[in-house]
Design goal:
This is PH domain leucine-rich repeat-containing protein phosphatase 1. This protein has about 600 residues and is mostly beta strands. Among the domains are: about 30-125, PH-domain like (Roll); about 485-600, Alpha-Beta Horseshoe (Leucine-rich repeat, LRR (right-handed beta-alpha superhelix)), CATH 3.80.10.10. It has seven helices and 33 strands. The strands form five sheets. It has a 15-stranded parallel β-sheet with strand order 14-16-18-20-22-24-25-26-27-28-29-30-31-32-33, with no helix packed on it. A seven-stranded antiparallel β-sheet has the order 4-3-2-1-7-6-5. α4 links the parallel β24 (about 385-390) and β25. Mean pLDDT is about 90; it is low at about 1-25.
Length: about 600
C-alpha cells in the first residue's frame, strides 16, 4: 500500500505511525462496487478494493488498483442495508445532509455476513450512546461530534493520543465538548498521561482510565464533583492527590494492580466508598491503624500483594470490616481476632501456620493451600456455612467445627487428618463433606442419621465403610471412596425395599471382589459407577438388569470374562469403559441410543 493510502487510513481511522497498515484493517477485499443511486444507469458496477478500517469504509477510485485517491465513507450514524435485487449485496450509507451510498456485491455468502455484522456494529451507534471500542482509533472521528448530546462513550482498547500528530485530527482534549457525558471508558489506550480534558466534563459520573500506564493523577480531578465510579486499575500509581476528597459522590474507586505500598490517606475522606479495591499492589505491611480511620470501608480486597504482617498499633476492634480478602500474599500467621464482625475471610495461598479468627458473625472461611497446623475460631461460629481448609497440615478436625450448627460445606481434603469425629456427621445442616487425601484408617463405626449429600473420602487408608453408612445417609447422592483398601461395601437396605437416592459411586482402585456386586442393586438410581482396578471376576446379568438408570460405567482393570448382556437395558448409557480385562465376547453396546464412549481394549 503506497504512502497516500496509508495517510488516508491514518487520518480517517486513527492509524498510529508506528504500526503497519494491515494491523488496523478489520476487513478488506476486491469486490464489485457501485456508487450513488441504484436506479441511475450512469452508475455502473466496477471492481474495487474495499477496506473497513476503524469507523470508515474506504473504496479505491482506480479499478483493480491501490493507487490514486481513496474515497472515505464515515459509518457512525449511517446505515447498512440488504439489497434484495442483487445476490450478496449490501448498501452502505453515511449520515448527515451530504450522505453518500455505496453498493457492494460480495463473492460469497460468508463474506456478505461478515461485513454485515462488522459494519452494523459501527453504523448502529446512535446519538446518546456510542461504542467505538476495539476500532483501532488514534484520534476521535469527526462524525462523533455531530451530536453534543452524548451520554455514554466507550473508547476502550484503541490507540488514542492526547494530541494527534496530524493537524486536522481531533484528540482527547476535545472530549470536554461533550457537556452531557455521564459515562466514559478510555481503558487500554496506553495514554501515559491522565487526560485532563475529562476533568472539565461536569456531568461525568463514571470514568474508566484503567491500563493506560498512568504514573500520576492530577489534582484537577477534584473538579469532577458528580463522579461516582472511578477506575484506575492497571497503572503505575503510587499515590493519589488530596483533591480526591472533593468527590463527595464517589462510591467506587478501583486501585488494583498499581504500585501502592500503603493505603492512600485520601480514602479517609471518601466516605461513600465502602470497598477498598487494592489487589495486585506492592504492600508489604497492612497497617490496621489506617483502616481504623476509614469506618465506611466494609470490604477490604488486598489480594496479590506481598503482605507479610499486620501491624495493630494498639488498635481497638475494627468493627466496620465484614469482608477481608488476603489471598496470595506472604503471611506466615494471621491473628484476625481484631476483626470482630468479620463475615467472610479469604486467606488462601499464603504461608500460614496458625490462624485465629473471631467467630461471632463468621459465615465463610477460605484458607486452603497454606501450611496450617493450628486453626482457632472463637467463639463458636454459629453462622458459619462454608469452610475450606484443604491443602494444609492439619492433623485433626477442630472441636468447634462440630459445634457449628449451620455448616453446610466442609472441605478438609489434602491434610494429615487421621480421624473424623462422629459428631460431625450428626450436624443436620452439613450437606457436603470433602475429606479425601488424608490418613483416615476408619470412619465412625456407628452413625446416626446424617444429612450429608456429598461424601468424598478418596485416597485414604480405609479398610471398610461404616456398616450402616448407606442406610443412615438416605440423602447421599455422591460417594467417592476410590484409592482405599476396601474389600466390600455396606448394604443400602436389610430388605428388598430401598430408600437409596445415590446417583454417583466411585470405588476405583480398591480390593473389591464379586461379593460387593449384589449390594449395588440397593441403589437403583445409580447413574455413574466406577469400579476400575479392583478384583472383580464376574458381574451377573441379573444384577446389571436392576441398574437401568446407569449412564456411565468404568469396570476396567479387573478380571472380568464377560460384560453382562443386560447392559443393553440401560438405554441412557453413554460411556462404557472395560479395558484391561479378560473379555472375549462383547455385547453390541454401540447400538445403545446414547452411547458416545466405548473402551474394550484387552
Amino acid at each position: 500500500m503506497d504512502s497516500e493510502i496509508g495517510c488516508l487510513i491514518r487520518f480517517y481511522a486513527g492509524k498510529p505511525h508506528s504500526t503497519s497498515s494491515s494491523e488496523r484493517i478489520q476487513l478488506s477485499g476486491m469486490y464489485n462496487v457501485r456508487k450513488g443511486k441504484m436506479q441511475l444507469p450512469v452508475n455502473r458496477w466496477t471492481r474495487r478494493q474495499v477496506i473497513l478500517c476503524g469507523t470508515c469504509l474506504i473504496v479505491s477510485s482506480v479499478k483493480d488498483s491501490l493507487t490514486g485517491k481513496m474515497h472515505v465513507l464515515p459509518l457512525i450514524g449511517g446505515k447498512v442495508e440488504e439489497v434484495k435485487k442483487h445476490q450478496h449485496c449490501l448498501a452502505f450509507s453515511s449520515s448527515g445532509p451530504q450522505s453518500q451510498t455505496y453498493y457492494i456485491c460480495f463473492d460469497t455468502f460468508t463474506e456478505y455476513l461478515r461485513w454485515l455484522r462488522q459494519v452494523s456494529k459501527v453504523a448502529s451507534q446512535r446519538i446518546s450512546s456510542v461504542d467505538l471500542s476495539c476500532c483501532s482509533l488514534e484520534h476521535l472521528p469527526a462524525n462523533l461530534f455531530y451530536s453534543q448530546d452524548l451520554t455514554h462513550l466507550n473508547l476502550k482498547q484503541n490507540f488514542l493520543r492526547q494530541n494527534p500528530s496530524l493537524p486536522a485530527a481531533r484528540g482527547l482534549n476535545e472530549l470536554q465538548r461533550f457537556t452531557k457525558l455521564k459515562s466514559l471508558n478510555l481503558s487500554n489506550n496506553h495514554l501515559g498521561d491522565f487526560p485532563l480534558a475529562v476533568c472539565s466534563i461536569p456531568t461525568l459520573a463514571e470514568l474508566n482510565v484503567s491500563c493506560n500506564a498512568l504514573q500520576a493523577v492530577p489534582a484537577a480531578v477534584g473538579a469532577m464533583h458528580n463522579l461516582q465510579t472511578f477506575l484506575l486499575d492497571g497503572n503505575f500509581l503510587q499515590s493519589l492527590p488530596a483533591e480526591l476528597e472533593n468527590m463527595h459522590q464517589l462510591s467506587y474507586l478501583g486501585l488494583s494492580f498499581n504500585e501502592f505500598t500503603d493505603i492512600p490517606e485520601v480514602l479517609e475522606k471518601l466516605t461513600a466508598v465502602d470497598k477498598l479495591c487494592m489487589s495486585g499492589n506492592c504492600m508489604e505491611t497492612l497497617r490496621l491503624q489506617a483502616l481504623r480511620k476509614m469506618p465506611h470501608i466494609k470490604h477490604v480486597d488486598l489480594r496479590l500483594n506481598v503482605i507479610r504482617k499486620l501491624v495493630a498499633d494498639e488498635v481497638d476492634f475494627l468493627q466496620h470490616v465484614t469482608q477481608l480478602d488476603l489471598r496470595d500474599n506472604k503471611l506466615g500467621d494471621l491473628d484476625a481476632m481484631i476483626f470482630n464482625n468479620i463475615e467472610v475471610l479469604h486467606c488462601e495461598r499464603n504461608q500460614l501456620v496458625t490462624l485465629n479468627i473471631c467467630g461471632y458473625f463468621l459465615k465463610a472461611l477460605y484458607a486452603s493451600s497454606n501450611e496450617l497446623v493450628q486453626l482457632d475460631v472463637y467463639p463458636v461460629p454459629n453462622y458459619l456455612s462454608y469452610m475450606d481448609v484443604s491443602r494444609n497440615c492439619l492433623e485433626n478436625v477442630p472441636e468447634w467445627v462440630c459445634e457449628s450448627r449451620k455448616l453446610e460445606v466442609l472441605d478438609i481434603g489434602h491434610n494429615q487428618i487421621c480421624e473424623l469425629p462422629a459428631r460431625l456427621f450428626c450436624n443436620s445442616s452439613l450437606r457436603k463433606l470433602l475429606a479425601g487425601h488424608n490418613q483416615l484408617a476408619s470412619l465412625p463405626e456407628r452413625l446416626e442419621r446424617t444429612s450429608v449429600e456429598v461424601l468424598d473420602v478418596q485416597h485414604n487408608q480405609l479398610l471398610e465403610l461404616p456398616p450402616n453408612l448407606l442406610m443412615k445417609a438416605d440423602s447421599l447422592r455422591f460417594l467417592n471412596a476410590s484409592a482405599n483398601k476396601l474389600e466390600t461395601l455396606p448394604p443400602a437396605t436389610l430388605s428388598e425395599e430401598t430408600n437409596s437416592i445415590l446417583q454417583e459411586l466411585y470405588l476405583t482402585n480398591n480390593n473389591l471382589t464379586d461379593k460387593c456386586v449384589p449390594l449395588l442393586t440397593g441403589h437403583p438410581h445409580l447413574k455413574i459407577l466406577h469400579m476400575a482396578y479392583n478384583r472383580l471376576q464376574s458381574f451377573p446379568a441379573s444384577k446389571m438388569a436392576k441398574l437401568e438408570e446407569l449412564e456411565e460405567i468404568d469396570i476396567s482393570g479387573n478380571k472380568l470374562k464377560a460384560i453382562p448382556t443386560t447392559i443393553m437395558n440401560c438405554r441412557r448409557m453413554h460411556t462404557v469403559i472395560a479395558h484391561s480385562n479378560c473379555i472375549e465376547v462383547f455385547p453390541e453396546v454401540m447400538q445403545l441410543p446414547e452411547i458416545k464412549v466405548c473402551g474394550f481394549i484387552p
